[in-house]
Specification:
single chain, 8-stranded mixed sheet, 248 residues, alpha/beta, Rossmann fold
Length: 248
C-alpha cells in the first residue's frame, strides 16, 4: 500500500480540497483507497459525509481496539474514510506514547495494506509530532502553495523541517494551489517560480468558486462539477502526476 500525505504549515491553502479530490480520482481509477482525516476540524469528513463512530481513538492507539473499526464507507466506490473526531486535537500526545514515537502512524497504517492500495492522509496545518509521523509514513508528501510570499515562506519552513529532522527530502512535492492569474503577484510567481519549488508538480490548481461549493454539496468536484471545469481538470492532472510519483 502506498501512502500519500497532503500537508501544509499554513492553513487556507486548499489542502483538504486536494486530499478529497485526489482520493476520489484514485478510487475512480480502480485503486481501493482509504482517506484518513487527521485534522480535528474534520473538513474531509464533512465533504465525504463521514461521521465518527463510537470507537475511541485513545483505545485504538493503546491497542485495545482494532484500528479497522474506525473505517466508514463513503458514497463512492473504492473510497473509504476514517473520519476525524474532536479528540484528534490530542493526537500529538497520544502518539508519543507509542514506541518508537515517529513510527506510530506507520504501524497503525500497516494492517490496511491487506485491503487498500492507497492511503491518503489529510493532515492538520502544523509542524508537530503528528507531522513527523506523517512525513515518516508517507511515500509522497504533497504541499499546496498559494502563489504568495507568505505561503512560500511556510513551504520554506516545511522544507527546512525536513532537512533538520533528517527526513527524506525527495518525498516532498509542492504544487501551486488557489492560483489566480488576475493577480499580478500570482502571475509573476507562476511564470517564474522560486528555486525552492524546483520539484513542484506541474499541475496548477486555480482559485475556483466551484471548489468552494464542495462544502455546500458535501462532495468531491467530480460528483457535481461539469467535465470541463478548470479546477476539476487541474486535480485530474495533479492525480496523474501524483500516481506517477507514487508508482501506482
Amino acid at each position: 500500500m502506498k501512502v500519500l500525505a497532503v500537508h501544509a504549515v499554513k492553513g487556507g491553502v486548499g489542502k483538504t480540497a486536494a486530499a478529497v479530490n485526489l482520493a476520489y480520482f484514485a478510487a475512480a481509477s480502480g485503486l481501493p483507497t482509504l482517506l484518513w482525516d487527521l485534522d480535528s476540524q474534520g473538513a474531509s469528513s464533512w465533504y465525504l459525509r463521514g461521521e465518527p463512530g463510537t470507537e475511541k481513538t485513545r483505545k485504538v492507539l493503546a491497542g485495545q481496539t482494532p484500528v479497522g473499526r474506525l473505517v466508514k464507507p463513503t458514497p463512492y466506490r473504492n473510497l473509504n474514510l476514517i473520519p476525524a473526531d474532536f479528540s484528534y486535537r490530542y493526537l500529538d500526545i497520544m502518539l508519543k506514547k507509542i514506541e518508537p514515537p515517529r513510527e506510530a502512524l506507520r504501524r497503525l497504517l500497516r494492517p490496511f495494506s491487506e485491503t487498500y492500495a492507497l492511503a491518503v492522509l489529510d493532515c492538520p496545518p502544523s509542524l508537530s509530532h503528528l507531522a513527523d509521523n506523517v512525513m515518516v509514513a508517507a511515500d509522497v508528501v504533497l504541499a499546496p502553495v498559494v502563489p504568495t510570499w507568505l505561503s512560500l515562506r511556510a513551504f520554506d519552513q516545511l522544507q527546512d523541517h525536513f532537512k533538520s529532522e533528517g527526513l527524506a527530502a525527495r518525498k516532498l512535492r509542492p504544487f501551486f494551489s488557489m492560483a489566480d492569474r488576475r493577480r499580478s503577484l500570482h502571475r509573476e510567481l507562476l511564470d517564474a517560480p522560486p528555486p525552492a519549488l524546483a520539484r513542484r508538480m506541474q499541475a496548477v490548481v486555480p482559485y475556483s468558486s466551484t471548489v468552494e461549493r464542495m462544502g455546500e454539496r458535501r462532495a468531491p468536484l467530480a460528483a457535481f462539477a461539469p467535465g470541463d471545469d478548470a479546477a476539476l481538470l487541474a486535480y485530474a492532472e495533479l492525480w496523474l502526476e501524483t500516481a506517477s510519483a507514487l508508482g501506482v
